[in-house]
Design a protein that fits this description.
β2 (about 30-35), α2 and β3 (about 60-65) form a beta-alpha-beta unit. The protein is built from seven helices and five strands. The chain has one domain (about 5-215): Rossmann fold (3-Layer(aba) Sandwich). The protein has a five-stranded parallel sheet with strand order 3-2-1-4-5, sandwiched between helices. It has helices spanning about 15-25, 45-55, 100-115, 135-150, 150-155, 170-180, 205-215, and strands spanning about 5-10, 30-35, 60-65, 115-120, 160. By secondary structure, the protein is of the alpha/beta class.
Length: about 220
């Protein structure tokens, strides 16, 4: 009997690599999806390709969406500096509706593949306060997917898996190491250079570094 199929959103960062490893570990035939949405940290797309190959994805696709044309985020508008100090509220690195758009693309591909599972590496603990990383958001999206797709209304709904949603960065790293993830091939920095070297100062870098320290795992990140 062939393995059930799953679409996994792979950004090239630490969390999405772990989500892909978890999906593979659960026995799914994994199809990796990355999105070039105009992010300033383009090196993450090259990292996503490395992750997809290393973790055995059956296929890796990169789709194009022009979120830079919408703007409103330091990750898509190079005139807005990436903050390098903690701030109150939802930070300017939030990309308007990004996860909704990315999950919608994953949902569409899953329907074409006949896959009833989508994995995403969002996390509600060690994150920057983004509204689309909360458990209630994932639950709401899954409910929407049942109503908005042919597969859903015909009785084959897609399930949205967010296995890291309540994990600390420490636990994510520990679990990933056990599953054989090489975090040296991932890029998490919001302003990584073209070689994928991290700034070491943005929110993402600070959370990543603290996670390795707490897990007692050597940090393989390449810094500028």
């Amino acid at each position: 009997m062939s393995a059930a199929r799953a679409v996994v959103l792979v950004s090239g960062g630490l969390d999405s690599a772990t989500a892909l490893a978890i999906a593979r570990g659960r026995g799914y035939a994994c199809y990796a999806l990355s999105v070039a949405y105009g992010q300033r940290h383009e090196a993450e797309l090259a990292a996503a390709a490395r992750v997809a190959v290393a973790l055995g994805a059956r296929e890796h696709r990169v789709m194009q969406v022009d979120l830079a044309g919408i703007g409103g985020s330091a990750l898509t508008d190079r005139s807005i500096p990436v903050p390098e100090a903690p701030s109150e509220g939802i930070p300017i690195t939030y990309v308007p509706a990004r996860n909704t758009i990315l999950l919608s693309l994953a949902l569409a591909w899953a329907e074409v593949l006949g896959a009833q599972h989508v994995f995403v590496g969002v996390n509600s603990l060690d994150y920057s306060g983004y509204p689309d990383c909360r458990p209630e958001y994932i639950e709401a999206f899954e409910h929407m997917a049942r109503l908005a797709t042919k597969a859903g209304v015909e009785g084959s709904p897609c399930h949205i898996h967010a296995p890291l949603i309540a994990w600390s960065k420490e636990r994510i790293i520990r679990e990933g190491v056990l599953l054989g993830v090489d975090y040296g091939m991932t890029v998490s920095c919001y302003q990584a250079d073209l070689q994928g070297r991290a700034c070491g100062r943005c929110d993402s870098c600070r959370l990543r570094r603290a996670g390795f320290e707490a897990a007692g795992v050597a940090d393989p990140t390449r810094y500028q």
